[in-house]
Amino acid sequence: MPYPNIIRAAVVGLGRAGWNLHFQPLLKHGGFKIVAVADPVADRCQEAVNLTGCQQFNSIENLLKSTDAELVVVATPSSTHYSDTIQVLQSGRHCVTEKPMSLAADEAANLVTLSRQTGKRLFIHHAHLHKAEFQHLRETIKSGLLGRLYHLRTFWGNYARRWDWQTLKKNGGGQLNNTCPHTLSVVLPLLGAPVKSIYADLRNIKDAGDAEDHVHLVMKAGNGVTADVVVTSAAVADIPKWTLCGEYGTLTSDGKKSILRYYNPAEVPPLSVLDAAAPNRKYLKEALPWQEKQIDIPPSTIASFHENIHDVLTGKAEQIVTPESAAEVVRVSEMARLAAS
Predict the structure, then answer these.
(1) Rounded Cα–Cα distance for residues 42 and 20 (Å)
(2) Residue-wise pLDDT tens digits, 10-49
């Protein structure tokens, strides 16, 4: 359907993320008009011009001096997200920043403050919060079927060798800055309280650069809930993507289908401690009334990332991924980096 309010947008960085994850969705959306692009590779800019007739620039500085864009996407290398986002917000424009929003917790906090001070929206591309998988896990916890959550495990793994710029620490590369922000953006709100302590193992197993391709985190939140997180491109393993452990049962899921095994505590008698010799020298045990549900995770019921941007900027909706939640991902990532050093 036609949109009465068209938002003028610019995209800085036309690599894999800028082109596939932002330029193309904005182009197809219908509520945005791409008026400018910037990339040091001229052929990339020309391809965008051929599709949209937009202006082209070789740097973010030149783009911001000349464009009338209301919204600017920062899809540059991770090491420049912070400085590029500052430039966009200070120029008086709303900003979409690829994850991670910065490489340091104090920088992330500065961006949150600057967004408030300028009155300009800051959107961080934590698109997994818009997906059905996250909604399903969150609603399962809220339903109470599993009882109080005390532990979760997640495994995001495959095996693939890399030798691109994201394998170098100097570029802000590595799994902790590449895939982990997506993982943590989902895990942290499921915990129900901020992370207070963390164990981290960051290793380079097989990639060409010096950045980690394997991340193992064990976290404990302020409410006592623990999380075991593995994000790796160095493992071929048939492991459930998600395991949620509650006091009355467990969920396992591959991200598309879930199995819930649980019991209703109202159907069992209360326990009291037997502080005496066990009858017949055997372990005490009981037959619990276990129930099992198999669930096909239904499609997402909320707007996509770019749809939400349009809705927010036209006053139709609240922001789903807040700058504060993205800054918390950076804070925990920094904790992990320090713990592993």
Answers:
(1) 17
(2) 999 999 999 999 999 999 999 999 999 999 999 999 999 9
Which residues span the domain enclosing 218? 129-302+331-340
Backbone angles phi, psi at 179, to 5 degrees: -95, -35
CATH number for 118 = 3.40.50.720
Residue recorded with tokens 């991902």: 329
Q: 33 with 137, same domain?
A: no
- Measured distance CA(175)–CA(303) in Å, rounded: 27
**CATH code of the domain containing 258:** 3.30.360.10
From the list 329, 339, 337, 338, the residue with the least C-alpha distance to 102 is: 329
Predicted local confidence at residue 3, as pLDDT: 83
297 and 307 fall within a common domain:
no
- Strands 122-124 and 94-97 come out as parallel
Q: Is residue 315 helix, strand or coil?
A: coil
Q: How far, in Å, CA of 117 to CA of 119, rounded?
A: 6
CA–centroid distance for 69 within its chain: 26
Same domain, 229 and 272: yes
Pairing of strands 71-74, 94-97: parallel
Please check whether residues 280 and 234 belong to one and the same domain.
Answer: yes
Query: 206-240 burial string, b = 16+ CB within 10 Å, else e?
Result: ebebebbbbbbbbbbbeeebbbbbbbbbbeeeeee
Q: Does the model's pTM come out above 0.85? A: yes
CA angle 247, 249, 252 (to 5 degrees): 125
Report angle CA 33, 305, 79 to the nearest 5 degrees. 90
Is 325 a domain residue?
Answer: no
